[in-house]
Amino acid sequence: MEMQNIAVNNQVAPRDQAGQVLSLSRNHIHGMDNMPFADNFEYLDALEKESLLILVLSALRHGKTDWPTKSSAADRLSSALGLSSNDFNTEKIQSELNRIQHINEARQNASLRSGVKLFFPVFCIGNNLDAFDQKILLLLFMNATSERFRETFSFCQFEEDKRGIKIRIILSSLCSDYRDQLEKRTHFSRNAPLVNREIIFFHHDFDKQSNSHVVDEIVTINERHVKYIIGDDNLYNSTYKEISIEKSSIKLDRVIMPGNMKDQLVLNVERYLGQRKRDKASKLDEFLEYGTALTMLFQGPSGTGKTMMAKALAHHFNRQLITVKVDDTQYYWRLEYLMIQAFREAAMLNGFVFFDEADDLFKEGSYLSRMLLIQIEKARCVVIFATNKGGQIDPAMERRLSMKIHFPLPDTEHRLKIWQALLPDFVRLAPDVDLNLLNNRYPFSGGLIKNTIFLAANSAEPDRKGNHIITRQLLEQAADLQTKQMIESDKFCKTYAPAKIIDNLPLADKQRAELKNMAEAFQYAQKKGSGLNILFSGVFLETSIHAADALAAECGMKVKAFKYGDLDTLCKDNELKDNVTHEKIKLVDYAFSQKTEEAHLLLIVDYNGAINWTETGNQNDMENNLSVRNGVAAFLNKLREYRGLCCLVMHKCPETNIPLEFHAHFKLEYPPEEMQMQHWERNLSPNSPNNDNDVVELVERYPMHIAEIDCILHRASIQSLIEGKPHIPSLQAVKSVIERYRGKNNIPLLFGKK
């Protein structure tokens, strides 16, 4: 089919991209048939009629001629197709189908040329679906949305299933002969676009053997794609709070970068998008097979314009920005799912994917890094990563990066340009404001400058013309506040209400009792004017954190949580040691000096193993002690002085080296074996050939906390689906995952954040 132009997100795609939209003929249609569709709904209505004819033709070809022609269903079908009962023969239905397809093709082309947004062809082009893929998609879409299609499906005596359509029925409906059916089976293989890009998915029948034929599998279209084709973008699942989709309004001239870095960046994106527009990208895709996304790494300190640049690029090229807030996601398994969702949205919306605060995605050899590589290799879009730690990148990931752009802290000259660029049109500076003096006094990043201007303008009184006059005093007050907040940033501290209760923790009864005793001990210590410091240790940190949360709930307190590694980094980070903050930032000082009206449990988590008790040595020689430089000694000093409830969570800790500053050591034990067995049995496939002895062996060989069991089960489910098996994993699948992801010393690799 020849399409003269294609409107994609209000952009015009070239003529060369024609031929990817559903059609069987290239005959030119004259007259009224060339009129554009009024809207997307009229177009889908026309496609529905086409899909009904496909079903009827297939039924006739397979000898299903004993229909009840006098039934109400037959009458409704005849009315929908505009045919009489005498017309229901192979020749007339085939002729009518050809005619309708020709008309739909011509009107579709006319619609796209005139700017009418038709989501089905745009979706097919964006995902490089060939003609047969599009026919499959058409049937599955109509099965998901059209009651008339489902009624016709039943009328034609096809085998019905509420979950979707069998591959066997799809092939028989769309293929003219046996050979064609065999050839088209590949459209349902693992590497086929519809499957690889998760446009369709399989519903496995757990009552049948795992070696059942592929043609007996039931497939359906992903609901998100249904909503897109309908044009219902407002129904994007809001439960994915870590993903946002926006049309940015930030212009490129607001982004200040050294030299010609910005121009080079824009030029490379422009060339890439132009290449894809000219359809050269599809040839490149065929040649390279994978890895044809433009992947860019924005690295540099916080507030240097990485996020702003990503938004400005999206605005400049009129693209949606699909942002994933990596740091807002607690578990790796959820991040994996969010990756899939983000790239799916980008394919549908023709947008850019932006992973903000993506430090955790680059850890060498991590499962998450490998999953990201898989998604990138399938992507055909612009992908941007922002990180503060550009030096810690998996070599395999680094090879996939098309560009690495460093965003440095601005020097004096560039800071001044940022001050000037970020001043809104409605803001006027008072005569006493000297931007040069302000610029030299506060060596801020671009993000802090923006916040300073916003706060000052918000406090300023408007004049008669509506302009906000900012005085020197207002700017200095706002700048001082930014300095304070930079030190006490949520980047290093999170406050929340505990959601765990001691009685509901999957622990042995004696450990639950121990936690309750600690709560009583803390109340006693408070009456005596002292505090309580507790060390939590265990191989699975998330379980220890849950125990500390439950202790806070028992004491009626909120939790103020810090990452010890971030506290340690804070005092070493040269980027933070400017003439404003240098003397104010001390290791762990602000963690212990938080004073609020509400009582908090101070939770410090050593995710990365930064604390090493063996380095504490002789406390009388603290000036020369290595632990002083590592922050351990300073941390212990704060513990001695603290009068609240402090919990430190870390990995296994030798009993002999626990400092005296801790009043108690809560060594997290595995839950009773019976509890572990029950949890395994509830979540393993009932059809797998396992027995009670197998589960007993599993628990004895691999003792785990319940949270870790859930992580293992999730990984095993994914692995099973990849292998084409039921998502409820077998015992063998679980053992395979355990062997793969456990360390050499039988210490679990955490699936939650480290």
Question: Can you walk through the features of this model?
Answer:
The chain folds into five domains: 6-233, no CATH class; 236-406, P-loop containing nucleotide triphosphate hydrolases (Rossmann fold), CATH 3.40.50; 412-487, Helicase, Ruva Protein, domain 3, CATH 1.10.8.60; 493-661, 3-Layer(aba) Sandwich (Rossmann fold), CATH 3.40.50; 673-741. It is 46% helix and 11% strand. It has a six-stranded mixed beta sheet with strand order 6-8-9-10-7-11, sandwiched between helices. A six-stranded mixed beta sheet has the order 14-16-17-18-15-19. Helix 14 (332-349) runs parallel beside helix 15 (367-378). The protein has 754 residues and is an alpha/beta fold. The protein contains 30 helices and 19 strands.
Low-confidence stretches: 1-30, 235-239, 570-585, 615-630, 743-754
The main β sheet shows up as: 6 strands, mixed
- Rg over C-alpha atoms, rounded to the nearest angstrom: 31 Å
Please state the average pLDDT score: 76
Strand order of the largest sheet: 6-8-9-10-7-11
Number of domains: 5
- Beta fraction of the residues? 5-15%
Describe the global form: globular
What is the β-strand count?
19
Q: Residue share in helices?
A: 40-55%
Number of helices: 30
Q: How far is the N terminus from the C terminus?
A: 53 Å
- What structural class is derived from the secondary structure elements? alpha/beta
Short structural summary:
With 754 residues, this protein is of the alpha/beta class. The strands form five sheets. Strands 6-8-9-10-7-11 form a six-stranded mixed beta sheet, sandwiched between helices. Strands 14-16-17-18-15-19 form a six-stranded mixed beta sheet. The two termini are 53 Å apart.
